[in-house]
Amino acid sequence: MSDRRSPETIARWATESLDTDVLHRLRVPLGLVAVIVFIRPVVSHPVLLGYEQIANSILIWMLFAASFNLLIGYTGLLSFGHAMFLGFGTYGAAIGVLHMGLPFIVAALISVAVATVVAHLIGRLTVQKGEIYFAMLTLAFAQSVYFIANQNYGGITGGSTGLSGALPAWIESYRGVMYVSLEWLRFDWYYLLAVVFLIGMLALWQLVRSPFGRTLAVVRENEELARAVGIDTRRYKIWSFTFSGMFAALAGVLLEINNQGATLHDLSVTTSGDVILMTVLGGTKYFFGPLTGVFVWLFSRDFLTEFETLVVPLSEFPIVRVELSGVLTYWQFFLGLLFVIAVLVAPREGVWGLFRGGVERLFQRFGGDQE
Amino acid sequence: MIDIRQNDATEAVQSDPILQTDGLTKRFGGVVAVDDVDLAVEQGELHAIIGPNGAGKTTLFDTVTGALPPTAGTVWFDGEEITDLPQEARPHRGLARSFQSNQLFNDLSVLENVRVVVQTAQTGTFSLDLLGEGQDRYRDRAFDHLERVGLDDQYSTAAKNLSHGDQRRLGIAVTLATEPSVLLLDEPTSGIGTTETQETAEMIDDLRQELDLTILLIEHDMDIVLLMSDRITVLNQGEVIATASPEAIRDNEDVQNAYLGGMREEL
Ligand SMILES: Nc1ncnc2c1ncn2[C@@H]1O[C@H](COP(=O)(O)OP(=O)(O)O)[C@@H](O)[C@H]1O
Ligand SMILES: [Mg+2]
């Protein structure tokens, strides 16, 4: 058994990696472009949600959940206080614009920088405390931030009403739709949002595939062994926490524009909980897992809430008409059920993992039949 | 009993033993798992540690590698005291260990298990390298290590899906990837069959020759120990009861008592 050192293996390995190179390497960037191109037409289709604005929140939450997955999925750290970094983004931008009179971009950059530094400091204090203490400490930090924002010291954070009306000078709201309005150009805010989303997601993707990111996976898999082979696991976890906070704050800045202000809800334990549920529902093992979770969650929430009468097959040809308003208002129950099933059937895989697995099996069977 | 303990009064830089412990002690509450152990491992030797279950062999490894802080005593490596050196810094000095139970990066591929360790050996305990594709780095080097243990054709299998014997081999490849000069192997043949045990023993011998390693080996198979080692240290209830050549150990009464499970009243 020990004498299987075959040159063929090496040759095979070399060609394999060449064959799949281009498509394989571009699959994530292409997938991300597909998300921003298709999500709006899909959700705004009359049969589905019928309005476009939901696509904005979906993208922002996707970025937020992806930043969270850097912790839970790639590093194996479960934080119960991730909303605090989203809040640093929303409140930071709003405070910078309203109280300091800064240009929006400057306020946004400062708030992301502050979130990054705070994340680094909190990371230093918490990452090495063991799973339960880490969860409790992150929760406690987030609750403190919530408390401070709610107390409204010096009228800075606006207390329970939050801060509103802090918009960049170049954003214009017209009949409920926001536009980026420059001297010579005016376009839907969605496109700018999508570009920032794309840049943020590509940066996250680069992070997880880099030598640094590959080491995070090793820390997640077996911290004891990682330390024994010479990895300073604590520092890797601190930096993972730092980057995670940074990208969450970036999502927060986008959310601030989208909601035209900052609200206490951004900082709440509900938001921290929602991002956990969405990420785990989608699947923490995959880069697209959290994105799937966010889509399924937000889409079903709105779909199930709005959708009261199911007409099959189409409203133009009503054959069967089912009144669902009584049942579907319990959307949280159905999402909860879906969550429980996904976690029980495939922890770490989630909805995206199950979907991928299904497609792969189909593909194999299909390919097999043809031969 | 042959005592090879260095005189305490001699100056610190004593380059002869590559690895040395001085009064090393580890207590867990009332249990003294490692009791005042003076061990000296010479450059290039294969030094076996034997002793009954619970003798403190694994705990000795844990304290030498820094996985556990010792209660008392010092550890010296390559002429420097490393007692307080962080655990993760030690492999970069050339001191590495394998585990008695299969410790692997379970969800990752066989290749990735080794590749990340090669990367770590090259870049240090921490590196904020955010550029390029991690998986492309050091693949060839990782492949060399896999070839050494005969796992190269299973490079894409997830570590958790390997057979037990192959997992043991991968554990050794992971340890080798740290580029050690002194290798601490904790029962590399535990839980595998006789043929595979023989193969593993040969593999260790080959590695030793090729890579010029000093090996500290915990092993329960006495045939292998007597055949392979240059010197043997016997532990019982945390204490060293003998350090000697295989021949001397075989005939040692204390050792036989310990192995026969006889409660030793004296000593
Ligand atoms: N983490 C621990 N906590 C408490 N006791 C331990 C721990 N590790 C080992 N021991 C005890 O120390 C003694 C030596 O164990 P160990 O080093 O594993 O022995 P060996 O490897 O020789 O079989 C045993 O009595 C064991 O129960
Ligand atoms: Mg042991």
Core attributes:
heterodimer, A: 371 residues, mainly alpha, ABC transporter involved in vitamin B12 uptake, BtuC, two-stranded antiparallel ribbon, 16 helices, 7 strands, disordered N terminus, B: 267 residues, alpha/beta, Rossmann fold, 2 domains, 6-stranded mixed sheet, 4-stranded antiparallel sheet, 10 strands, globular, disordered C terminus, binds adenosine-5'-diphosphate, binds magnesium ion
Architecture overview:
The complex is a heterodimer of chains A (about 375) and B (about 270). With about 375 residues, chain A is mostly helical. Chain A has a single domain, classed as ABC transporter involved in vitamin B12 uptake, BtuC. Chain A is built from 16 helices and seven strands. Chain A has helices at about 5-20, 20-45, 55-75, 85-100, 105-125, 130-150, 190-210, 210-220, 225-230, 235-260, 265, 270-280, 290-305, 325-330, 330-345, 350-370; strands spanning about 165, 170-175, 175-180, 185-190, 260, 310-315, 315-325. In chain A, the strands form three sheets. A three-stranded antiparallel β-sheet of chain A has the order 2-3-4. Chain A starts with 6 loop residues before the first helix and ends with a helix. The model of chain A is unreliable at about 1-5 (pLDDT under 50). Chain B is an alpha/beta fold and about 270 residues long. Chain B folds into two domains: about 1-95 and about 180-195 and about 210-265, Rossmann fold (3-Layer(aba) Sandwich), CATH 3.40.50.300; about 100-180, no CATH class. Helix content of chain B is about 35%, strand content about 25%. Chain B contains nine helices and ten strands. Chain B has a six-stranded mixed β-sheet with strand order 6-7-8-3-9-10, with helices on both faces. In chain B, a hairpin with a 2-residue loop joins strand 1 (about 15-30) and strand 2. In chain B, helix 3 (about 110-125) crosses helix 4 (about 140-150), helix 3 (about 110-125) packs parallel to helix 5 (about 165-175) and helix 4 packs across helix 5. At the A-B interface, helix 1, helix 7, helix 8, helix 9 and helix 10 of A face helix 2, helix 3, helix 4, helix 5 and helix 6 of B.
